[in-house]
Write a structure and sequence with these properties.
Distance between the termini: 30 Å
CATH topology of the largest domain: Aspartate Aminotransferase, domain 2
Structural class: alpha/beta
Largest sheet: 7 strands, mixed
Helix content: 40-55%
Number of helices: 14
Low-confidence stretches: none
CATH superfamily of the largest domain: Type I PLP-dependent aspartate aminotransferase-like (Major domain)
Radius of gyration: 21 Å
Bound molecules: 4'-deoxy-4'-aminopyridoxal-5'-phosphate
CATH architecture of the largest domain: 3-Layer(aba) Sandwich
Mean pLDDT: 98
Order of helices and strands: EHHEHEHEHEEEHEHEEHHHHEEHEEEHH
Number of strands: 15
CATH class of the largest domain: Alpha Beta
């Protein structure tokens, strides 16, 4: 069987990136590493659309979420966490764990956060007690993308810092840190950036750096000021995964060759093709078209067929790995990841196998209907 990793992270890694990592390890305090690290750190700014330093940590995405919290806050600080799913909830958990006073602004899973509701809540905070607003750009657990630009605009006029989890968005959909007025943006290597898991990235605005200087939450490994100081010398404070840095240089080259706008357009086209294909099989989608993620699609299984059964058949019969639902969506949905190194062929293969899987499991489906619906969209593009 040929394996297809169609989960929303970790995602497939292009051969060029794999080959770039296949090199002898170098000294992380030597000139070769310094040149490499300065170069990738500079080029990352283009992807974040920021003039600020982009800090690199050896970390999972959750590590970067924690880094965002502990670097800008002090125990007792009030924060507002806007949550539309599992990863919004996680921000609330982390902030509470470190002693922040957390208020949540929850929206139904499958929906996007309403900027107007956020603006109203902040307008009610006359004393400006809320220190930070936490947002998820792309909620991977539901396949919904928040309009971060509008949400950040809703925070204008209030002193709160705007913190954005861009773990499953940066590099797949537009995010303009400086232009949109975002104060902290974090992401990970294993999604749209087309790298294996293991690297985390964080950029901070001038306001966020000022907050760092005041922050008293405990931190050592995550201390952004230490990472920034080391970066000024082309270094990391602690031993970095140099092999992943080789990969990062090549992944950035791939991104530059294709161009960010083309990458975003590719993700939108694949989203449209996939959604049309799934609908043509008679299946429902968790998210409305207006808020549907360009990187991950949550599909509702047909009545009488468990989501897990579909995932199992896809994996065992076709070698295609899909993701399941998390927390309260467990077994209620299955998710198809289509971000990063993903092409039209991946979508067509997945849809073809999904049709056969549904037929094998007893769902009435016309073989080829989903594939054709996707083909029609791809032919237009
Ligand atoms: N935030 C979002 C939006 C994510 O999709 C993920 C990973 N699925 C995370 C945070 C956490 O990343 P990690 O699993 O690398 O800790």
């Amino acid at each position: 069987q040929k394996p297809y990793l169609m989960v929303p992270g970790p995602t497939a890694v292009p051969e060029r990136v794999l080959q770039a990592m296949h090199r002898p390890v170098i000294n992380h305090r030597g000139p070769q590493y310094e040149a490499l690290f300065r170069d990738v750190s500079d080029r990352l700014k283009t992807v974040f659309k920021t003039k600020q330093d982009v800090l690199t940590y050896p970390a999972a995405g959750t590590g970067m979420m924690e880094a965002a919290v502990v670097n800008i806050l002090s125990p007792g600080d009030h924060v507002l966490v806007v949550s539309i799913g599992v990863f919004g909830d996680r921000f609330a958990e982390i902030a509470a764990k470190f002693g922040a006073v957390v208020e949540k602004l929850d929206f139904a899973w499958g929906e996007a956060a309403a900027p107007r509701v956020l603006a109203e809540r902040l307008a009610g905070d006359k004393e400006g007690r809320i220190k930070a607003v936490f947002l998820t750009h792309n909620e991977t657990s539901t396949g919904v993308t928040n309009d971060v630009q509008a949400l950040a605009a809703a925070c204008k006029g209030h002193p709160a810092l705007v913190v954005v989890d861009a773990v499953s968005s940066l590099g797949a959909m537009d995010l303009a840190m400086d232009e949109w007025g975002l104060d902290v943006v974090i992401t990970g290597s294993q999604k749209a950036l087309m790298l294996p898991p293991g690297l985390g990235f964080m950029a901070l605005s001038e306001r966020a750096w000022a907050a760092c200087a005041q922050s008293t939450m405990p931190k050592f490994y995550w201390d952004a000021q230490a990472v920034k100081k080391a970066l000024a010398k082309g270094q990391n404070p602690y031993t970095p995964p140099v092999s992943l840095l080789f990969g990062l240089a090549e992944a950035l080259r791939l991104i530059e060759e294709e161009g960010l706008d083309n990458i975003f357009a590719r993700h939108r086209t694949l989203r449209a093709a996939l959604r049309a294909g799934v609908r043509a099989m008679g299946l429902g989608l968790l998210a409305d078209d207006k808020v549907a993620s360009p990187g991950v699609t949550a599909v509702l299984p047909p009545t009488g067929i468990e989501a897990k059964k579909i995932q199992k058949t896809m994996r065992e019969r076709f070698g295609i790995t899909l993701a399941g639902g998390q927390k309260k969506l467990e077994n209620q949905i299955f998710r198809i990841g289509h971000l990063g190194y993903v092409a039209q062929t991946d979508i067509l293969v997945t849809l073809a196998a999904l049709e056969m899987t549904l037929a094998l499991l007893g769902h009435k489906v016309e073989l080829g209907a989903g594939v054709r619906a996707a083909q029609e969209i791809l032919m237009e593009g």
